[in-house]
Design a protein that fits this description.
The chain is mainly β. The protein folds into 2 domains: 31 residues, no CATH class; 68 residues, no CATH class. Strands 6, 7, 8, 9 and 10 form a 5-stranded antiparallel β-sheet that branches. Strands 1-2-3 form a 3-stranded antiparallel β-sheet, with no helix packed on it. Strands 4-5 form a two-stranded antiparallel ribbon. The N and C termini lie far apart (32 Å).
Length: 114
């Protein structure tokens, strides 16, 4: 399990065994509030919402695509998508418009147009 906490004054991400058999271990410290939003399908990468933009153009609420090749994120009433690679290091292509959002919160993404 991954969770965010500011128990040490700075915001930090921790992981802990779900069965509670171990102490929480530090993953990342930040001077911004962090919120884990979704794991990549292969379980190796975590999308974070830091209450700050996830792209140079702004954006929040990042989510992974089912195949792990795209990140989706919200910019006001638009859902954007950006193709990414995570190996050997993280790299992102130019973002593009995926859809216009008509509801207050997006909880999942599904693409049948490809």
């Amino acid at each position: 399990m991954v969770f965010a906490s500011n128990r040490a004054e700075l915001w930090s991400l921790f992981w802990k065994r779900v069965d509670g058999s171990d102490e929480a271990k530090l993953l990342l410290k930040s001077d911004r509030e962090l919120r884990p939003t979704s794991w990549s399908p292969d379980g190796r990468s975590l999308a974070l919402d830091s209450k700050h933009p996830v792209s140079t153009e702004g954006g929040t609420e990042p989510m992974w695509s089912a195949d792990g090749k795209e990140l989706f994120y919200r910019v006001e009433n638009q859902m954007m998508t950006v193709r990414v690679t995570t190996e050997p290091t993280f790299a992102a292509e130019t973002p593009r418009l995926f859809s216009i959002i008509l509801s207050a919160q997006v909880t999942s993404i599904s693409s049948t147009s490809r």
